[in-house]
Design brief:
Blueprint: H1 2-23, H2 25-31, H3 36-44, H4 46-55, H5 64-87
Helix pairs in contact: 1-4, 3-4, 4-5
């Protein structure tokens, strides 16, 4: 059961990025000027990348920084969650 949860946490946002990119390419092209940043984001920080595309309309202002921070916290917790459970 634990392996299924880990797979869902690691592959879920990447699958979301792929589907959202296929459905709404114009939003992704407004958020990123090159393909390199979303590719690196999908590999290393997928929740943060999803949050950035979600909040980016004319730039990131005010409360939108909190949403980006929450995405970053999700990314960090996805990577460090396995370390905590292995340590026990």
């Amino acid at each position: 059961m634990c392996c299924l949860i880990t797979i869902a946490v690691l592959l879920g946002p990447r699958l979301g990025i792929l589907i959202w990119w296929l459905v709404d390419m114009s939003r992704w092209s407004r958020a990123f000027t090159t393909f390199v940043y979303p590719l690196l984001g999908a590999l290393f920080l997928p929740w943060t990348t999803l949050a950035y595309v979600l909040v980016f309309a004319d730039g990131v202002n005010g409360f939108e920084w909190a949403i980006l921070a929450l995405g970053f916290i999700f990314d960090i917790s996805a990577y460090t969650g396995g370390f905590r459970s292995r340590r026990r």
